[in-house]
């Protein structure tokens, strides 16, 4: 299904191109027709969809295992909002214009937001619970979103570009941009690939995890860095795309069970599948204009998540 989605992502778009011309555009670089250029522009878009879909799905799975909160994802925990604030500051006050330039701001903003959510959730009496973390993330996201709008008010020229980025999309992808931030994806993916056994141990509880030889503090820090790195890099390139990190891990658990080694592996497949299908649908439903993929993932993801809530009991992870 993922292979078929990749083929559709290259072959189908807002401009209708016959299959023969699609193949000609990909196999003969000397052809420079409008159709050929349109087809070639879809290749980096497809690659970015693969990267962002896998990164968001794995980030959501790690966050859910780390916080033992079935509703955790980069949007609900305020990580997207933190990255957005930092990117607006970079755009409005420093003059940065590309993802490769403000990736460091996205990472810093996402990291600070994650740290603030954890500090708020663990402050006061008691310890961090899934409910406290979700409430802390929702409140912080609302505050940061309002702060972002306040920063944009005196910079009207940035409103249009920021609105397009805020909707979440992979259109306009370029291999040069992807290459510049690819190391962050690779590092995050490598950390996620090592996270399965640790998440399985933490799922048993801190005391049992400690008895099995896991240093809980170090493990949580490692997992948090991996999740923030994947989410922030995706947000810097494609904007705050929602629901991928929330529903994909649940859908995967329904298929393969709760073993995080399998959950993370299948998130790499199902996340890109959802994102690419949503992107293809967004290209054809309003031809010749495109609907941002972030809008489509919300439209597709909300009913799916409601269905999961109705059919499965989502307790602490």
From TrEMBL:
The keyword Transmembrane helix applies. It comes from Propionibacterium cyclohexanicum. Belongs to the binding-protein-dependent transport system permease family. FecCD subfamily. CDD domains: TM_ABC_iron-siderophores_like. The chain crosses the membrane at residues 43-63, 75-96, 102-121, 133-153, 221-248, 260-285, 291-309. GO terms for molecular function: transmembrane transporter activity. It is a multi-pass membrane protein. Keywords: Cell membrane, Membrane, Transmembrane, Transmembrane helix, Transport. GO terms for biological process: siderophore-iron import into cell. Pfam families: FecCD. This is Iron complex transport system permease protein. Its main location: membrane. SUPFAM superfamilies: ABC transporter involved in vitamin B12 uptake, BtuC.
